[in-house]
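Batch manifest, entry 17 of 40.
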Amino acid sequence: MASTAVPQTGITSSKDAQWFKHDIEEINPTFGLIMEEYSKIPLEEVKSHILNIREKAWKMFPYPCIGGFNFLSLSVTCHACYPRVLSTLSAPGSKAKLLDIGCCFAQDIRKLVSDGAVAENLYACDLESGFIDLGYDLFADRDTLDSHLFAADIFEESGKLSEIEGMFDFIHVGSFLHLFTQEDQIRACKRIVKLVKPHEGSTVFGRQLGNIKASEIPNFFQGRAMVLHDPRTFEHMWQVVGEETGTKWNVRVELDSEEGMNERHWSSEGTRRLKFEVTRLS
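Output type: structure tokens
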């Protein structure tokens, strides 16, 4: 696995940070529709509302996903399996459950709810409780959303996640696994195996940073390495996870080029978006 030298800038709340955008170039139409129809925010106030919440978030969490407005992209919808996921979660009387790990503002949960998924069967967690709280402000649904949103650490054996193991038909993992070393990515995936229902068809899907050649680069904020997989190494990781958990998985993975990604000068050469769908076979 290649090691790519990328300057480690450290965490900074300065708006001169490489990943900070001062204004929204264009609001994702789907996100804007959720603001108007789900959150009941007048069209003329949507942009200022988003900017206000982003300002509060930046002061606490000056991460690229906040500075670059990545949370507007609604990553849950970019997967080929989304129609199947939504159909299952929105079927009359459905008891199927989904967990969104590393949910940020839980924007993908709001997309699912607005598309008709049963809200009470949707769960989401993030390490930072501040994201959960700001998410309620962003979507103006603190008193109306029936989904289960909570702070949790994927590596903590006790706590909330230990109470919901084996409950989920679907787990969405967006822009999360790439934050860790290879060893910790395997640990996280083994924890995910405990969280899905222990039967054929349980599905883990998501996206993250990848590379045309698997690379180890510095993590800007945590002072340790992070691994960007290529399709071959990502599939091998799940083979290892399967062997260590006594499970088998079908792994579908692809790289694509998100617009502008390779122009971001904190990204290493060859950086791509890696999308995956991992389905339990046994």
